[in-house]
Amino acid sequence: MAKILIVTGDAAESLEVLYPYQRLLEEGYEVDIAAPARKQLRFVVHDFEPGFDTYTEKPGYTWPADLAFSEVDPGDYVAVVIPGGRAPEYLRNDPELRKILKSFFDADKPVAQICHGPLLTAAVGGLEGRRVTAYPALELDMQAAGADFQDSAAVVDGLLVSSRAWPDHPTWMREFLKVLRAKG
C-alpha cells in the first residue's frame, strides 16, 4: 500500500489536515501525520464572520501525530500534503522539516499544499518559477518566493498542486488525486 505523509503542527487548520487525511485513506493510501514531536496536536478552525476584515480563529479538533519529523524517512512516501493554518508560520523554521520537504522536490514526488502551507515550500526554494495559489493574503509572499501567484481554487504545476483554503477542498483533492494516479 502506497504511503502519503502529512506534515503539520499545532494551530493547523482542522479541515485542511483532516479532509485530505480521510480522503486519501478512502482512496486506499496509508497516511501518516508528522509533526515536530509525537504528541496530541491541537488544531484550529478558521472561519469568516461579518464585520471582520480577515478570518477568525477558534479551537478545533485534537489529533495524534504518528511521527516526529526526526523519525520520517521521506523514501517511504510517494507524496506529501502540507496543510495551512498558522502552523506553517513556525514550522518553516524547523530544519528537520525543511530536509523532508526538500527531499520530496529533489525526488520529483507529488506535493499538495493549501492555504498557508506554501510558506513551507517557499522556505525550501520549491516555488521558484512555479505557478501556485495560496490563501490570497499570501500573494506577495508567493511572488517574493519567485512564484507566479494565481487566485484559483486549485493550481497544478507539474507535480505541485496548490489551493487557497478549505472551501476549495473538492477541487484541490480532485486535482491531487489525478496527479497521484498519473505518477503511479
UniProtKB/TrEMBL annotation:
Residue ranges occupied by any DJ-1/PfpI domain in the UniProt entry: 3-178
InterPro entries, alphabetized: C56_PfpI-like, Class_I_gatase-like, DJ-1/PfpI
Residues spanning the signal sequence: none
Family as reported in the entry's similarity comment: Belongs to the peptidase C56 family.
Alphabetical list of PANTHER family matching this protein: DJ-1 PROTEIN, DJ-1_THIJ_PFPI FAMILY PROTEIN
User: By what name is this protein known?
Assistant: DJ-1/PfpI family protein
Native source organism of the sequence: Streptomyces omiyaensis
